[in-house]
Amino acid sequence: MMKFKGLFRSQIFPKYKLVFNKTMFIRSTDKPNAKSLTSLNKSQPYTKYFVLDFEATCDNGAHLLKPQEIIEFPCILVELNTVKGGFEVVSCFHSYVKPIIHTQLTEYCTELTGITQDMVNNSPPFDEVFSNFCNWHNDHINMEKEKSIIVTSGNWDIGNMFVEQCKLFPSTITIPEFMCTWINIKKLFALTMGQYPLGIKNMLKTTNSKQIGNIHCGIDDCVNIITIMNQLLQRGCVFQATNKITSV
């Protein structure tokens, strides 16, 4: 399993607080125009891409855990190298997270994710990890001059898991605006390849790409998402936002 350490520095950046007694829902942003998916040299709307894939507490069958809690927080920052024609890794953030409700991982969870009880016992809680992540993010983006976006495989990570996780820390977490808009790589895959994928493994197989590490290992999933991004880039994909969180 690949290991990365977060880079931390205390800085203040624009934030806003979610009002959790209001209904939260996800909406799709304007869909990328299929006519724009034509050229590798076409300008991309963002300069930096934060590829993210959470792992969470879980159980099998009828014993599903509620609420689920994030137990792995990985993110890899990539930039587009226009000379080489591909996304290149700039920096990585990676931390395991100690759950506060279902503190004991199930056997199913460990088998699925590879995350053991010792890994989470020796890790900080989510609010501390998220603060470290935000500092790392802020260290690597000039918000006045650069445009960046989160990239995930599906809408679950941000639209579901992240929002629900933040509800467990209403007094210590504020959510930065950059966490509320993201690229669901599955949607861009469907637009580019003409078929909606089942998941990361399916996207790798369809593009004849080699899988790195294990599916459901968060940091490995991030690496595999970057592989898929490069495959879509070679096919002329424009990496536009697909979804955002809106409060009503």
Radius of gyration: 18 Å
Tally of extended strands?
8
Helix content: 25-40%
Task: Count the DSSP helices.
Answer: 7
Reading the helices and strands in chain order gives: EEEEEHHHEHEHHHE
- Strand-pairing-aware structural class: alpha+beta
How far from one another are the termini? 41 Å
**Spans with pLDDT under 50 lasting ≥5 residues?**
1-41
Q: Could you please describe the fold and organization of this structure?
A:
The chain is an alpha+beta fold. Helices cover 28% and strands 20% of the residues. The protein is built from seven helices and eight strands, in the order βββββαααβαβαααβ. The chain has helices at 107-113, 117-121, 126-139, 156-166, 185-193, 200-206, 218-234, and strands spanning 24-28, 48-52, 55-56, 70-81, 86-96, 148-152, 181-184, 243-247. Strands 1, 2, 3, 4, 5, 6, 7 and 8 form an eight-stranded mixed beta sheet that branches. Strand 4 and strand 5 (86-96) form a beta hairpin. Helix 5 (185-193) runs parallel beside helix 7 (218-234). The longest helix is centred in the last third of the chain and has 17 residues, at 218-234. It starts with 23 loop residues before the first strand and ends with a strand. 34% of the residues are buried. Mean pLDDT is 85; it is low at 1-41.
